[in-house]
Design the sequence.
């Protein structure tokens, strides 16, 4: 509610509620951070609020306990590649939807969005078989390779990215672009020199979402990767559910893998809110 | 030109979404087991046998599927409702101007910024029976319970999943609601205040109708994602969850890959999709009335 009609009671109610929600949001984060500076005995016995002594060795040990660097590299390769390609393809498709009238435009937008509704489990099994068959038929290995995973994650990010960028481009006035077109610039030229610079917040938002999608995916990675292409989610899941987990080390790994996305997300959240608003304004 | 621009997206979505979906539907009518999988093109037609097996609620496979469905429905409703509620309260609280507001907004978004598997793993750690903070707090510090519960076994496993999922999803609701609340003009509230409308009245009469479009999509997205949730139970329990945490996606996954019976797994997935499509259509049809909304 707007502050100007807020009574004292309402103000205190708002403060207390927000504080409680913030506590709920931050408490697990506090537990993660605190556990990473605890020695192993502290996390093997009854939980204590205060570490018996502070150590940073979990951050060093975790790289030996599990092949974290290997998982990390795999996830970086897959996430960066799929994000980069998704941004380019979504820019093209979003631009087409917002600037051209063409047959099948509505069908295309709806079909792309409807893919969001499919249960992942429905196309996981067939996709696995299709990738294996493409490999046998053409020699292009999609099962167990980075390429297969990149293509898969790319398509997870695309529907939302296309929808959001189409909305963003539509909110950019056509006048600027038409001026450029009159001056003899081609559609490609106007896309790259006029539209893209203005749409930067939307593109940044799309990139962040695409990266987060790939970085956090587990279901398809569990089936489409082999030990040489294991990504972070599966690697940590294997270690977390195996039985004798050193939780201080696992929490250190959690910090290492969360840091890039959390920092990126928080730094760019302004763009995200702006991008989302523009996307939802559009019809 | 426009076709050239959308071609890459179309090709990829065809390959990874539409082709497998069609293949999945086709597979559900075939007997695809470990023995026929390698020569899938010659697999025998099974007709409706897979579907009959899946909905034979007296048989072991059918009753297990029904049980999983009966877990997934309350799980989804609880997670969506609580996440939306917390997200809405936080979003309303953040529309007021105060010192530290943007800092607080960042803090509240942290759970969503984390990878899902990290979010679930930390809850798994907090809910460990002896080494977890939750039992230390409830039993050791507050003395609310005498015996520390096994949060990750038996019926409590369900509530552990709900807690982890709400923690991860309420910031998403907050993000979307905050973005749409910012578009409501203050004049509406001022007019309502002049008319003497109370806070609850203003919320019902101005806030909710103004964000109707975004809200409709938000709730549907949360519903679909959580109904299909695989990550939460899988990260907490691996592929053998306690029966109270056997969500439907993980259930189908286990049935398919334990027995390598892809035909049956596909039939179950098709049933799941039909259910989701019907629910979504009813939802959109009922709520679309009386309000313009955009997707």
Sequence:
């Amino acid at each position: 509610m707007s502050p100007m009609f807020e009574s004292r009671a309402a103000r205190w109610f708002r403060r207390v509620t927000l504080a409680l929600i913030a506590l709920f949001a931050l408490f697990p984060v506090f537990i993660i951070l605190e556990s990473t500076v605890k020695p192993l005995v502290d996390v093997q016995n009854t939980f204590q609020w205060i570490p018996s002594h502070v150590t940073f060795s979990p951050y060093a040990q975790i790289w030996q306990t599990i092949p974290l660097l290997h998982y990390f590299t795999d996830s970086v390769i897959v996430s960066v590649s799929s994000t980069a390609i998704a941004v380019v393809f979504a820019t093209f498709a979003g631009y087409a939807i917002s600037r051209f009238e063409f047959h099948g435009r509505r069908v295309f937008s709806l079909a792309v969005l409807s893919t969001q509704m499919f249960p992942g489990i429905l196309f996981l099994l067939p996709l696995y078989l299709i990738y294996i068959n493409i490999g046998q038929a053409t020699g292009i290995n999609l099962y167990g390779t980075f390429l297969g995973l990149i293509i898969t994650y790319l398509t997870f990010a695309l529907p939302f990215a296309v929808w959001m960028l189409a909305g963003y481009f539509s909110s950019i006035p056509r006048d600027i672009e038409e001026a450029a077109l009159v001056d003899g610039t081609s559609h490609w030229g106007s896309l790259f020199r006029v539209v893209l610079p203005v749409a930067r917040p939307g593109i940044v938002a799309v990139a962040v979402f695409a990266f987060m999608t790939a970085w956090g995916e587990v279901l398809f990675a569990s089936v489409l990767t082999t030990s040489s292409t294991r990504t972070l989610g599966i690697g940590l899941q294997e270690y977390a559910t195996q039985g004798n987990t050193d939780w201080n080390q696992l929490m250190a790994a959690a910090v290492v893998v969360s840091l890039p996305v959390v920092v990126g997300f928080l730094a760019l959240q302004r763009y995200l809110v702006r991008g989302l608003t523009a996307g939802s304004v559009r019809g | 030109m426009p076709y050239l621009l959308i071609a890459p997206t179309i090709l990829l979505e065809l390959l990874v979404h539409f082709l497998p979906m069609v293949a999945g539907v086709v597979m559900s009518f075939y007997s695809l087991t470990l023995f026929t999988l390698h020569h899938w093109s010659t697999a025998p037609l099974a007709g409706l046998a897979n579907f009959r097996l899946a909905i034979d609620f007296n048989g072991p496979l059918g009753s297990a599927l029904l049980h999983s469905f009966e877990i997934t429905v309350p799980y989804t409703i609880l997670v969506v409702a609580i996440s939306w509620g917390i997200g809405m309260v936080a979003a309303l609280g953040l529309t007021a101007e105060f010192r530290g507001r943007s800092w607080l907004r960042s803090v509240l978004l942290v759970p969503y910024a984390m990878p899902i598997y990290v979010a679930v793993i930390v809850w798994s750690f907090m809910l460990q029976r002896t080494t977890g903070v939750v039992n230390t707090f409830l039993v050791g510090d507050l003395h609310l319970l005498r015996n520390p519960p096994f949060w990750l076994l038996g019926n409590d496993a369900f509530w552990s999943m709900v807690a982890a999922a709400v923690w991860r999803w309420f910031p998403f609701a907050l993000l979307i609601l905050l973005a749409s609340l910012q578009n409501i003009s203050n004049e509406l509230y001022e007019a309502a205040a002049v008319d003497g409308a109370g806070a609850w009245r203003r919320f019902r009469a101005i806030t909710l109708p103004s964000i109707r479009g975004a809200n409709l999509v938000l709730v549907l997205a949360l519903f679909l994602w959580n109904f299909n949730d695989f990550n939460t139970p899988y990260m907490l329990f691996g592929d053998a969850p306690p029966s109270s945490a056997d969500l439907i996606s993980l259930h189908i996954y286990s049935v398919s890959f334990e027995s390598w019976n892809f035909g049956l797994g596909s039939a179950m997935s098709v049933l799941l999709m039909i259910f989701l499509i019907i629910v979504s259509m009813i939802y959109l049809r009922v709520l679309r009335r009386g309000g313009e909304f955009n997707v």
